[in-house]
Design the sequence.
């Protein structure tokens, strides 16, 4: 019997299936990783487990009991605590108060006693203070106990969330992207912290994060979600090598890339087809020049000291892990957020503090993540709006020639189009507006590979028209295949700049910026393809109970894996082991 | 800082006890009204300031207990204070019922619903002759007053009622200050800052939201229950939704998260009209009550743009900043 | 009895037209800027009093050239009021709501309550809140036509026709004009709209001006049917909210239909029940039911 068992969980939002028949098992004492691209359904799964969302199908069992009818606070009181991707601290309360809320929730304290300040309340208050301080001490937060949680930097807020969750005396801790917004040192510290917490508080954890170095270091076992489906499961070493996982993270092509001989040929063919120096290029003055750019949200400075130069007709890629600051950089360039420092020069004009609508009219078009469309407008209406950014509003022909499909759908409401068609609308608008520079953020997010390839071919179209492109992309290889140059982002700044060709050769650099570097050589690579983990036969309840108490989590997992691999019940394996020992 | 505020609080309390006794009847009457309004604003500090639930029907809660008290005194000839307690209980129950939509709704939608509730009571219940048994018909209830021991309390002798009200206000305010930093208070504030986090950290949203609505209605009802004693009668006009809007406006203006804001707000609401009237007498120039509302509206708009935490909140913050800065300067010179 | 029913239908449709008119401004502003404007009625009231001043205030009516018929002077007054209302809308947007961009919907709504208090008491200071004011009659109140054996006043017809015409006109403007499409784009996603080069701030100003204009039209046309003072028109906002919510705070034609439906609902019971205020209860129960029903949908959308 595992601590948490999720079976065939399905959640639909309207037409979208956020989770599709997902099953997973979490053993007591384990740190289980859950990874996958954006929109893979990780947070949805968390919401189901903590009771914020009711699944459409499937069941969740915790300590052997169904959670179906328990409200969120009842689940919390039974030992399921969580943290949130977009921090949900109680910002106007002190750190100490934040941690005391769950402590109180475990005890029975009444309002009347509190309001009258009866002796019992004073006593309970003292006890709560002591416990809260103990937890803050372990997490190194005692210095901040009297600060308002909302005033703290994100790195510390994340730790406060962790402290608050631990105050719930959890058996199971759900951690939703605890490393988001942390710098490299903090992330490294977090992995150790999680391991320490497991020892100290005897909790099991389910960890979602984009930072692979964290997940690989901290987790005993990893599940990979993609588009709501379980893609793979296995030990960290095995996941790192799993071609399916690499494909999901780095793009389709990468699966067969390492050392692929036809690779060079493609590059050569491409460079032959496109002149690397377009006729329009003005070598002296770049189209866009960014120096010392800093930007962020609220208390958080996300990017700092970013320097970029883009020339006319150039395709430049920004690559780096999630949270490295690529999107924020684009947003600061187009005026969506106000830069806090540095200068942005576009065609010789300082646009650092201009409003977005003014910047667009200069010929800098930003297609944001999620495409920046208006779901309730029709395709035709949407394209007509391009006239606000310099297009001829009446003549939509250039767009329809490039995307004949849109002509058939021009009366359809954009929100009902498929993701690929929506991206076409966004690109068509960029074509119509005849910009000088297009910022493209995660163009391929949520799209099928075939469509992605088509979209990448379109970038050549931009190049042929003398339009420069600054590209942020998950599918690194496809991006590098079309790009001339690339900037590598890490921890909110540009750490590396190189030609695309160079970067494509240097696989290691890219892989480490996305999947994290391997802490040790993969040991005797435990095989773990597909759903090998799911297929195991459960051990008899009493035996498992006993084993769980006595076996360390990692050994238990080995046992389950072995049983799955050999197709024999784990019980048999245990007996075998015991017999070997005896003989 | 806290010591200074506490000292100022005691000083003001001493003034509130001693000064009205020397004033004329009209001002004494206004002092009693000020405390009643203060209780209404206090009820919003609890509900909106602590728990983050919006209500635009606090005057309705006041009205329920005022009418309830009037009815029990007139129809059943109960002792006034027993009737008042029952009236407060009625407010409490109505508050819980009004809180039910809050389990579903948040923010602006809740504001519209509670405003709708205020109007239902305003236009339909309080004024409809069909409910004359509760509202006393079109003339409302007349309350002739009561005796506390041998002291007579009625609309011509408001000082005893004033002291009772002041005592209640001080007790409720102290209880709320205590509540703020207690376990329950933390749970309330957790709901305000993030319902999602509160629910997943073991706070029972249903229970605490309903309790908050009930308690808030009861606090407003405390003022309402003593209203007939001060005024001598109950009619629908003082419980119209315009008063609810004023309570909300004053609470937001003075700092809806802070207990002292209720005292300041109540003072202004109670005395502003009479001050305007007397001012216009002495200036031989007619200053209308409407000026008061014009100024209130303008202040509210300006304050929400400039001082989002309310007069008390922002002033307090500024003072705290001064205090934080002061010792730092000392270190530099040392 | 039959004629009575028809007469009540006419009254109901007039009330409904009035509610619909008052609701249109609320929907327009909410849809584009996300501000639920409690001051909508007060804004209309203030503009209507501007027209009233031009017509009845001796200082102003003296200016009327002798050859100009009184009715034409009334139209001139209405024109001035409408220009005033546009200015009022612009002033509110520039002076208040532009500074609240990014604040919560609730804060913005509380600000509109402040504006409500300001305008309502300001109006009573200027025009007095107790006395009876002569209404602004855009058409001759005595004239009527017979429809199905019931006399229907011209001003009643005007309210109904304007409600329908204005909603269709505004809907067409939003649907087909370039600026209308831009307004819808802003309401869908203001940040993205900025990236498309749409002048987001100007769109906000225009929607406030339009909202204020519609509120003024509503106030002027409704004034003959109510006890025209500073309070009644201000309070109409709540009944109007019910109609607006039936349209989901989005659809203009549905809002008008909702207004008519509510008007009939408020009126028909009067045939049998001799209570003035009971019908109000229906409107308020509709508000509550629609709100709670809609809130469920809003919550579901949020989760997705």
Sequence:
């Amino acid at each position: 019997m595992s601590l948490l068992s999720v079976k065939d969980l399905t959640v639909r939002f309207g037409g979208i299936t956020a989770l599709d028949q997902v099953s997973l098992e979490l053993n007591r004492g384990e740190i289980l990783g859950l990874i996958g691209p954006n929109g893979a359904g990780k947070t949805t799964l968390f919401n189901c487990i903590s009771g914020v969302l009711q699944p459409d199908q499937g069941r969740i069992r915790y300590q052997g009991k169904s959670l179906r009818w328990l409200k969120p606070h009842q689940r919390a009181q039974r030992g399921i605590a969580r943290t949130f991707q977009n921090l949900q601290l109680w910002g106007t309360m002190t750190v100490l108060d934040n941690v005391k809320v769950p402590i109180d929730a475990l005890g029975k304290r009444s309002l009347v006693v509190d309001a009258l300040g009866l002796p019992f309340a004073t006593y309970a208050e003292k006890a709560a203070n002591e416990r809260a301080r103990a937890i803050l001490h372990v997490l190194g937060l005692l210095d901040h106990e009297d600060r308002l949680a909302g005033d703290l930097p994100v790195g510390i807020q994340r730790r406060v969330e962790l402290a608050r969750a631990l105050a719930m005396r959890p058996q199971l801790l759900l951690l939703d992207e605890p490393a988001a917004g942390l710098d490299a040192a903090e992330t490294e510290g977090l992995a150790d912290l999680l391991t320490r917490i497991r020892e100290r508080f005897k909790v099991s954890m389910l960890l979602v994060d984009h930072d692979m170095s964290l997940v690989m270091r901290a987790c005993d076992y990893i599940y990979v979600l993609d588009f709501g489906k379980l893609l793979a499961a296995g030990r960290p070493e095995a996941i790192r090598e799993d071609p399916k996982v690499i494909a999901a993270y780095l793009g389709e092509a990468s699966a067969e890339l390492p050392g692929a001989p036809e690779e060079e040929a493609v590059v050569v063919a491409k460079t032959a087809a496109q002149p690397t120096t377009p006729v329009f290029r003005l070598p002296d003055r770049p189209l866009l020049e960014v120096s010392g750019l800093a930007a962020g949200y609220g208390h958080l400075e996300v990017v700092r000291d970013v320097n970029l130069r883009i020339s006319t007709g150039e395709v430049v890629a920004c690559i780096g892990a999630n949270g490295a600051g690529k999107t924020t950089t684009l947003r600061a360039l187009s005026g969506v957020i106000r830069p806090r420092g540095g200068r942005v020069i576009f065609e010789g004009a300082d646009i650092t503090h201009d409003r977005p609508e003014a910047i667009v009219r200069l010929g800098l078009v930003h297609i944001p993540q999620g495409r920046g469309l208006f779901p309730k407008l029709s395709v035709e209406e949407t394209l007509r709006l391009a006239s606000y950014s310099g297009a001829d509003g009446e003549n939509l022909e250039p767009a329809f020639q490039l995307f004949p499909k849109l002509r058939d759908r021009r009366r359809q409401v954009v929100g009902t189009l498929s993701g690929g068609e929506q991206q076409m609308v966004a690109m068509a608008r960029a074509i119509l507006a005849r910009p000088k520079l297009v910022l493209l953020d995660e163009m391929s997010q949520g799209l099928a590979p075939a469509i992605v390839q088509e979209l990448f071919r379109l970038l050549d179209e931009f190049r042929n028209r003398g339009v420069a492109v600054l590209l942020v992309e998950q599918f690194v290889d496809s991006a590098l295949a079309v790009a001339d140059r690339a900037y590598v982002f890490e921890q909110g700044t540009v750490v590396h700049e190189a030609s695309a060709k160079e970067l494509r050769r240097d696989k290691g650099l890219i892989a480490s910026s996305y999947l994290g570097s391997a802490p040790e050589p993969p040991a005797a690579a435990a095989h773990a393809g597909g759903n090998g983990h799911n297929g195991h036969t459960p051990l008899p309840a009493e035996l498992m109970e006993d084993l769980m108490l006595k076996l360390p989590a990692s050994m238990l997992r080995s046992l389950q894996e072995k049983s799955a691999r050999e197709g024999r019940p784990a019980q048999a394996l245990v007996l075998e082991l015991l017999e070997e020992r005896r003989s | 800082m806290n010591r200074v505020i506490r000292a100022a609080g005691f000083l003001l309390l001493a003034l509130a006890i001693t000064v009205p006794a020397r004033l004329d009847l009209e001002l004494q009457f206004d002092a009693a009204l000020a405390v009643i309004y203060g209780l209404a604003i206090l009820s919003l500090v609890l509900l909106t300031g602590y728990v983050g639930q919006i209500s635009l029907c606090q005057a309705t809660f006041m009205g329920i207990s005022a009418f309830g008290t009037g009815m029990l005194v007139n129809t059943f000839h109960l002792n006034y204070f027993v009737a008042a307690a029952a009236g407060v209980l009625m407010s409490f129950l109505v508050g819980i019922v009004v809180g039910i939509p809050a389990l579903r709704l948040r923010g602006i939608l809740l504001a519209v619903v509670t405003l709708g509730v205020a109007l239902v009571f305003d236009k339909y219940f309080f004024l409809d002759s069909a409910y004359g048994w509760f509202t006393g018909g079109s003339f409302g209830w007349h309350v002739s007053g009561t005796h506390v021991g041998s002291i007579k309390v009625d609309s011509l002798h408001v000082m005893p009622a004033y002291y009772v009200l002041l005592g209640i206000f001080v007790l409720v305010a102290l209880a709320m200050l205590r509540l703020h930093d207690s376990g329950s208070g933390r749970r309330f504030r957790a709901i305000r800052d993030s319902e999602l986090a509160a629910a997943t950290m073991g706070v029972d949203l249903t229970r605490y939201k309903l309790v908050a609505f009930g308690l808030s209605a009861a606090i407003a009802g405390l003022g309402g229950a003593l209203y007939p004693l001060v005024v001598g009668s109950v009619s629908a006009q003082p419980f119209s939704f315009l008063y609810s809007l004023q309570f909300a406006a004053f609470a937001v203006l003075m700092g809806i998260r802070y207990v002292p804001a209720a005292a300041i707000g109540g003072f202004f609401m109670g005395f502003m009209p009479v001050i305007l009237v007397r001012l216009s007498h002495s200036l031989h120039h007619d200053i209308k009550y409407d000026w008061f509302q014009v100024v209130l509206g303008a202040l509210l708009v300006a304050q929400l743009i400039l001082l989002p935490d309310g007069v008390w909140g922002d002033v307090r913050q500024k003072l705290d900043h001064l205090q934080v800065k002061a010792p730092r300067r000392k270190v530099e010179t040392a | 009895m039959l004629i009575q029913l028809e007469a009540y239908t006419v009254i109901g449709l007039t009330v409904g037209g009035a509610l619909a008119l008052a609701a249109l401004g609320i929907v327009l502003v909410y849809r584009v800027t996300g501000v639920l404007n409690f001051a909508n009625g007060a804004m209309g009231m203030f503009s209507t009093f501007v027209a009233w001043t031009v017509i009845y205030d001796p200082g102003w009516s003296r200016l009327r050239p002798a050859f100009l018929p009184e009715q034409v002077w009334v139209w001139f007054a209405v024109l001035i009021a409408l220009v005033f209302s546009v200015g009022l809308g612009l002033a509110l947007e520039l002076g208040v709501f532009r500074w609240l961009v990014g604040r919560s919907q609730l804060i913005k709504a509380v600000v509109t309550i402040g504006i409500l208090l300001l305008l309502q008491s300001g109006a009573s200071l200027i025009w007095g809140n107790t006395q009876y004011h002569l209404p602004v009659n855009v058409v001759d109140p005595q004239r009527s036509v017979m429809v199905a054996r019931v006399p229907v006043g011209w001003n009643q017809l005007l309210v109904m026709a304007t409600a329908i015409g204005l909603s269709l006109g505004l809907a067409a403007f939003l649907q087909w004009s370039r600026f209308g499409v831009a307004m819808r784009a802003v309401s869908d996603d203001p940040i993205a709209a900025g990236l498309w080069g749409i002048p987001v701030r100007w769109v906000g100003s225009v929607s406030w001006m339009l909202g204020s204009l519609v509120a003024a039209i509503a106030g002027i046309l409704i004034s003959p049917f109510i006890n025209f003072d500073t309070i009644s028109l201000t309070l109409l906002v709540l009944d109007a909210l019910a109609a607006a919510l039936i349209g989901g705070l989005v659809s203009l034609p549905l809002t008008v239909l909702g207004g008519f439906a509510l008007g009939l609902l408020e009126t028909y019971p009067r045939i049998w029940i001799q209570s003035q205020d009971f019908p109000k209860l229906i409107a308020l129960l509709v508000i509550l039911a629609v709100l709670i029903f809609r809130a469920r949908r809003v919550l579901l959308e949020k989760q997705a």
Q: What stands out?
A: Chain A has 24 helices and 20 strands. The CA atoms of residues 420 and 451 of chain A lie 6 Å apart.
